[in-house]
């Protein structure tokens, strides 16, 4: 009998109602592939953009979803470093994660240790790898540095703050409300700036005695870029890794000259390729999770068939992250 699985299939772009549960065939793994029975799937804003058609990167009809955790049921020919019964996490830019079972390129899968709960692992895998790459490779954070974490109550922002603090830095976080200030403090920020009420650059100057920060990690984009730039110390680095408020407008590179500053725009993928780098980064991240070093709460869990409800909660800006249990 042919193998099948429940999956969420998008047949037309639109609101959360286009996320419909269907029964789909699951093929046998080909050489270099694995078959996994999924346990938990992460729900990200990227999924919302794919569903709505803002990102037309998923051919329709198609199964959305970038990341999940599951247990290997079969391995294809040539797969030697993964075994049946092993729990793995993955990020797949080709999508397909909103499913109870699936076939996956084995090169994408990273082992998950027993000490990390599957829902937590999938909810924080992409965010955690991103934050870890930012503070360890894009701008290596070390003791004595002063770090500005914009949107420090957000998913990646919390992890940037905590990881920078663990590495001995003084962390200044920005947030939009007193409630989020408490989240940022709990994540490791030594100082918190309410950006709707205070001038970020002026407060950074006050906190640092006019010196500025060695690095500003900024995923907000258009609304925060100028404040981040003005907050840099001499030889400072503005790491622009997202644009939640929109893309930054063009600016004159010569403006960096006064401080010999630099601006970079990193993406995660080059930092987890080839596979050896993915395995090393994943092992480090999961070890930190298992030790309890990171703030890893979950906002809500939904059955796979209720993916629409999870999207609605995410779009309503309810506290996440959210996962789908398979």
Automatic annotation (TrEMBL):
Keywords of this entry: NADP, Oxidoreductase
Domain (Enoyl reductase (ER)): residue spans on this chain: 14-324
InterPro entries for the chain: ADH-like_C (IPR013149), ADH-like_N (IPR013154), ER (IPR020843), GroES-like_sf (IPR011032), NAD(P)-bd_dom_sf (IPR036291), QOR-like (IPR047618)
Keyword flag Iron: no
GO cellular component, one term: cytosol
Domain of life, per lineage: Bacteria
GO MF assignments: mRNA 3'-UTR AU-rich region binding; NADPH binding; quinone reductase (NADPH) activity
Record has Ubl conjugation as a keyword: no
Protein's name in the database: Quinone oxidoreductase
Phylogenetic classification of the source organism: Bacteria, Pseudomonadati, Pseudomonadota, Alphaproteobacteria, Sphingomonadales
């Amino acid at each position: 009998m042919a193998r099948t699985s429940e999956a969420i299939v998008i047949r037309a772009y639109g609101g959360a109602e286009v996320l419909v549960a269907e029964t789909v065939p699951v093929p046998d793994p080909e050489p270099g592939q694995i078959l996994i029975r999924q346990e938990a799937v992460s729900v990200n804003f990227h999924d919302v953009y794919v569903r709505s058609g803002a990102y037309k990167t998923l051919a329709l009809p198609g199964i959305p979803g970038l990341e999940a955790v599951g247990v290997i049921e079969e391995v294809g020919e040539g797969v030697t470093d993964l075994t049946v019964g092993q729990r793995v996490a993955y990020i797949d830019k080709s999508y397909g994660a909103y499913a109870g079972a699936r076939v996956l390129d084995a090169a994408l899968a990273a082992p998950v240790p027993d000490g990390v709960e599957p829902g937590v692992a999938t909810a924080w895998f992409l965010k955690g790898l991103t934050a870890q790459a930012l503070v360890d490779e894009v701008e290596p954070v070390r003791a004595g540095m002063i770090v500005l974490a914009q949107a420090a109550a957000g998913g990646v922002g919390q992890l940037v703050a905590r990881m920078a603090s663990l590495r001995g830095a003084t962390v200044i976080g920005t947030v939009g409300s007193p409630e989020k200030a408490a989240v940022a403090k709990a994540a490791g920020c030594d100082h918190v700036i309410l950006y709707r009420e205070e001038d970020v650059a002026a407060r950074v100057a006050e906190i640092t005695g006019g010196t500025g920060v060695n690095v500003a990690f900024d995923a907000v984009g258009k609304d925060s870029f100028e404040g981040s730039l003005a907050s840099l110390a001499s030889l400072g680095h503005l790491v622009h890794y997202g644009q939640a408020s929109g893309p930054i407008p063009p600016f004159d590179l010569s403006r960096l000259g006064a401080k010999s500053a630099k601006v970079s725009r990193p993406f995660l993928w080059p930092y987890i390729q080839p596979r050896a780098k993915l395995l090393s980064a994943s092992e480090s991240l999961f070890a930190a999770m298992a030790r309890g070093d990171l703030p890893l709460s979950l906002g809500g869990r939904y059955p796979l068939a209720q993916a629409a409800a999870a999207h609605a909660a995410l779009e309503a800006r309810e506290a996440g992250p959210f996962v789908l249990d398979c």
